[in-house]
Fold:
Amino acid sequence: MLTNNTFKHGVHPPEHKDETNKSPIRQFPFAPLFILPVEMHIGAPAEILVRQGQEVSRGQVLAKAGGYVSVPIHAPVSGTIRSLGNVHTISGKMVQGIYIEPFPSSTQEVMEGTPVDVESANPEQILQAIQDAGIVGLGGAAFPTHVKLKVPDGKHCDTLLINGIECEPFLTTDHRVMLEQADDIFMGIRYLIKVTSAKRVIIGIEANKQDAAKHLAWHIPRGLPVEIKVVPVKYPQGSEKMLITSLLGHEVPSGGLPIDVGAVVVNVATTAEIGRLLPHGRGIQERVVTITGPAVKKKGNYLIPIGTPLRFVLEEVGVTDNISEVYMGGPMMGVAVSNLDISIVKGTSGIVVFGEEHVTKSEKIFPCIKCGACVDACPIFLNPSKLGILAKFEAYDKMAESYNLMDCFECGSCTYVCPSHIPLVQYFRLSKSIVRKRKTKEVTNA
Amino acid sequence: MLNRTLHISTSPHITDGTSTDAIMRNVVWAMLPVAAFAVYSFGLNALFVMTTAVVSCVLTEHVLCRLSRKESTVSDWSAVITGLLLGLTLPPIFPLWMTFCGGVIAIGLGKFMFGGLGYNVFNPALVGRAVLQAAFPVAITTWLPSFAIDRFQHVSSSVLALPFMEPTVDAISGATPLSAFKFDHVITPTYDLAFGLVSGSTGETSAIFILLGGLYLVVRKMMNWRIPVAILLTVYVFSGVLHLVDSTIYPSPLFMLFSGGLMLGAIFMATDMVASPLTPMGVVVYGVLIGVLVVVIRLWGGLPEGVMYAILLANAVSPHIDNLIRPRVYGTAKSRGT
Ligand code: SF4
Ligand code: SF4
Structure:
């Protein structure tokens, strides 16, 4: 079970997981108002099916998938549609959304749908059911899971990798899910084996979650080809490419997908969700979120209905007066929140709150001293120092053509180690988007 | 409570706590014992030379920043390193006015002209030292014997020579072990070399303190250990082979390792992050190159010492090393150079 295999380079930020990894998942109270943006997944926005004033019941479809790369949105509560309108999102963009006011004193029973039986359903039916359940990558990517699971013609899936790495500091959602939802996970794996026709399944877990690994190993159902591998703790092992290298020893080709090396990677919480929802034909209405950080009073892992406003969440758990930064996701890749009127969405794996004294704010930026720390940290073996200098000179094409800019997956390891505090990954995000824009321009001009 | 304005920053929101000024400061700490030993063995002369070099570098950096209407960068401590390094490479009785010029040249020509910290191609201290060597060939090879009895009372008149005056040499030039070897074929015992019982530049005589300083920086992960290891191993192996071939012409590898400015150069000068390559492989190539050059210059060149030129040359090729030796990018077939 325990292996020393891991990817090369990477960093070791302080874990801070002890603060929440012992607290069991608790149900979060219902907010007085829910906000559901139609764009909470990657792909086409969902299309709203309800009207203002309409009464809906928990689990009902409120918005249908806006295309193949899209998923529907289900009602997280029974209540009344108060209005449809623009809502805030984490990116700062306003998008269309739905406001729901829950019925007071409702028992909040969940609607049952048409169950999908793992034995009798065919792969197409299961994929459809996964889309209908509104499932996206719960690790944070929020990419529609049914799209990812569809093995393209001519390729085949050997190994299904269940990602229980959770390498972001502070976050413990996947850890608790593995400890508390083993049956759902294995049920989910059955569905996933069926759609991918994978011959074997590996659950990858980092060594700071040995208890979860033991628990899962103990509960593997007989006959299910599941193996559990525990790998050393290192960031960003949870990224698909690094996970594949750690567990299988292969590298995913530049610009390629895991399926190019015969693998499909699914997050462990997503797997559990599939295993829990499909047998009942339900849609996703809630998810586990770690709420933590030095400025949070009641830290823990909570089952929070999708659409719960962030402001309500922070009021419930209590934060210290000197609250300064709020991140959705972990501190390495999470996004800083500028507005508390956004809501918990399907991709929200954690909320981390820092007080003033914990923010490494506006550290002085020095010129690059070519110390090479970033080169030794980059898991893709790029040269962030050189890329950073080229970005300053706006040599975006050179960055892409000679220095593999587009292979950067924005893990932030380079910035984390840089003694000159150069916001390298921020440069690379901007540079990548500029290169992408230029590419599309070229295509349309050609 | 929740009406406070939130700070927004881009990810990652945490860092590992290192910072460039802290690294620079620690390099200074690591050199202090070397400097202290220099004062102990060469007395007031050395103290004056080093202080002047540091003051000159810091002052030059400050003034140049101000003249170009930029925020002064002296607080990053890199000018202190340059000054201290320059002081350590000069003879202990080097005239102060020349030392001062060296500092101005090191910072002005070696660093500022290239765009300041991070952009310099060469180690600035070595640029200063190289110019001084060309301008004042006599003064820079006038040595003081170590442990002179009156070293704490007496300041050599050469040190206090008036500006634009060549010093009148009152100190008897104690030949350095390398020049003794080169010109008279006298080999100094390794023990004397390691413990600094010899004459030489202010800071190059005590290999032990230099090694300790290097060890400190390596342990604190503020120095790339591959550079000194590659240099010293190369010198050892290369000169060792030559010594085996003909021990009457070629000195023993230990003598080569511990004499002259090799230790100081390998540990404190070749490791200048800005002027050395980035990748582990590139750094090894760079170190080997320096090692080979040192041996070649010392044994076959016209000069007794070659460390300075070896490092300067390697500094010049280090950007090219980075260009040629690139790690293979994850998921691609092989490394690509341009
Ligand atoms: S870590 Fe920062 S200072 Fe060091 S080489 Fe990379 S960009 Fe330059
Ligand atoms: S953000 Fe990009 S360049 Fe920086 S370490 Fe991660 S992959 Fe490498």
Remarks:
- Chain A has a mean pLDDT of 92.
- Chain A touches chain B through 71 residues (CB under 8 Å).
- Residues 373-445 of chain A form one domain.
